[in-house]
Design a protein that fits this description.
Elements: H1 2-7, H2 16-30, H3 32-47, H4 51-64, H5 79-91, H6 93-102, H7 111-131, H8 143-159, H9 163-176, H10 183-190, H11 196-200, H12 203-224, H13 235-243, H14 266-276, H15 283-289, H16 291-300, H17 306-317
Helix pairs in contact: 2-3, 2-9, 3-5, 4-6, 5-7, 7-8, 7-9, 8-9, 10-12, 10-14, 12-14
């Protein structure tokens, strides 16, 4: 697929969610100690997936007055499922220890290992804190601000002596070191009024972005000459008007701002739609075509007529378009 995309002359932007999983996976592969720790936690979760072991865990939880939760299993190569597994192990560590000691199971974690589990969980929690803020609008414009936020959080953890955060930050930088050199990422961010100043605060990057946006508007103007399209009074003024506007809150729809542009801002609006309409992750599409995940729609919305469901999905995905 990547080869054919390149052959067609299209730009390939890797799925952001998949890239973060890759950052986590590569970090584990590069560090045998952290990989062995995660694998050991996977074995503990797997042991307590047995019905009999779950019964022993429930009794220990009641004795210790802990929440009666089962452990969460993970394959060990996805950051979010690994985080969920580690958080549950930390929550139930006393009950787990109680059962493993009682039945002489060789899966006990040392105090040093528990300390490293907390470091791992706090680092992955930084991922969750940043990513969870973009639940609805998965535009390319999210990527650079989220990477910057991730770097900041990981740096704070590094200062507190978190070695896992340090290794994770290295692999994150490896994948996103050239993010601000990519026009699709920088222009989408600059034309998103929630994050505009993240990329325009750097002089060199800002100059290049503004020139590219003006060039895009000029190209659009040339294509539409003679077709009775709205003509701009001045392309530079249109961009300046946008740059003078106040920033929007992070929970706003970035495309809603460009939905009803004034005549003089039409060209800039079209350029913004071009870049903001590209999604940053393939996760929604993956869910749509995954039978295991897709069946949740059928079970939770079983009373909906298929035609109505399709229309709801279509309208939700295209609500930003003009009628």
């Amino acid at each position: 697929m990547k080869r054919d995309i390149k052959k067609a002359g299209w730009d390939l932007i890797p799925c952001f969610a998949n890239t973060l999983d890759l950052v986590f996976k590569e970090m584990l592969e590069a560090s045998s100690d952290w990989k062995e720790l995660v694998q050991r936690c996977c074995k503990i979760a797997e042991y307590f997936s047995n019905v009999e072991a779950q019964g022993h865990l429930k009794r220990a939880q009641k004795t210790l007055r802990l929440p009666e939760h089962n452990l969460t299993e993970s394959k060990g190569d996805k950051w979010l499922s690994t985080l969920n597994m580690l958080e549950r192990i930390l929550e139930q560590q006393e009950a787990i220890r109680h059962v493993l000691l009682e039945f002489n199971v060789d899966l006990l974690l040392s105090e040093h290992e528990n300390k490293n589990i907390r470091k791992t969980a706090s680092s992955l929690q930084a991922f969750k804190d940043v990513i969870s803020t973009a639940k609805r609008f998965h535009s390319l414009s999210n990527i650079i601000p989220q990477v910057e936020a991730l770097r900041k959080k990981l740096k704070e953890l590094q200062h507190s002596g978190n070695e896992f955060a340090n290794e994770l930050a290295k692999h994150l930088n490896h994948h996103f070191s050239k993010a601000k050199e990519n026009d699709w990422l920088t222009l989408s961010t600059a034309l998103d009024l929630r994050y505009r100043d993240v990329v325009l605060s750097e002089k060199g990057t800002s100059t290049r972005i503004k020139k590219t946006i003006i060039a895009e508007m000029k190209h659009l103007d040339e294509d539409n000459k003679g077709r009775n399209f709205r003509q701009p009074d001045n392309l530079d003024k249109a961009l300046s008007r946008y740059l003078d506007k106040n920033m929007l809150q992070s929970n706003w729809d970035p495309l809603a701002f460009w939905k009803f542009p004034k005549d003089e801002d039409w060209h800039l609006s079209e350029v913004a739609r071009k870049y903001l309409a590209v999604v940053s992750t393939a996760v929604p599409a993956d869910i749509a075509f995954d039978t295991e995940k897709a069946r949740l729609v059928a079970s939770r919305r079983s009373s909906l007529d298929p035609e109505h469901l399709n229309m709801m999905l279509f309208l939700n995905g295209n609500c930003f378009l003009d009628s």
